[in-house]
Amino acid sequence: MVTYLYRCACGHEHTVPLPMGQASPSVDCPCGATAYRVFTPPALRPTTPDLSRARDRARESAEHPEVVSAPPPTDGSQSRSPHIDPRTAGLPRP
């Protein structure tokens, strides 16, 4: 459902929820006048800081990708990789 805004000549504004593309150019205002559709920008949610950083990093890496020659060093305190599934932990590894 999309919310459409209508305004009459008296200045009254009201919203009408309708399926997308079903809005008529005018409707009856509660005051008795004819209200015409007002075109407004869509109601968009603000971007979260995490999503904004991810988009910026993706955009930057498209032109200048980060290239590594080896995996990052470890301190040796982890005996196993944290992403190994415990059901397959006993299987031989290369």
Write structural notes for this entry.
2% of the residues are buried. By secondary structure, this protein is of the alpha+beta class. The chain has 1 helix and 4 strands. The model has no long low-confidence stretch (mean pLDDT 84). Strands 2-1-4-3 form a 4-stranded antiparallel sheet, with no helix packed on it. It starts with a strand and ends in a 31-residue tail after the last helix. 16% of the residues lie in helices and 22% in strands. The chain is elongated and about 80 Å long.
Distance between the termini: 54 Å
Mean pLDDT: 84
Helix content: 10-25%
Q: How would a textbook summarize the main sheet?
A: 4 strands, antiparallel
Low-confidence stretches: none
Estimate what percentage of residues fall within beta strands: 15-25%
As a whole number of angstroms, the C-alpha radius of gyration is 28 Å
H/I helix tally? 1
Give the key terms.
single chain; 94 residues; alpha+beta; four-stranded antiparallel β-sheet; 1 helix; elongated
Structure described in brief:
The model has no long low-confidence stretch (mean pLDDT about 85). The chain has 1 helix and 4 strands.
Topology:
Layout: E1 2-8, E2 13-18, E3 26-28, E4 34-38, H1 49-63
Antiparallel strand pairs: 1-2, 1-4, 3-4
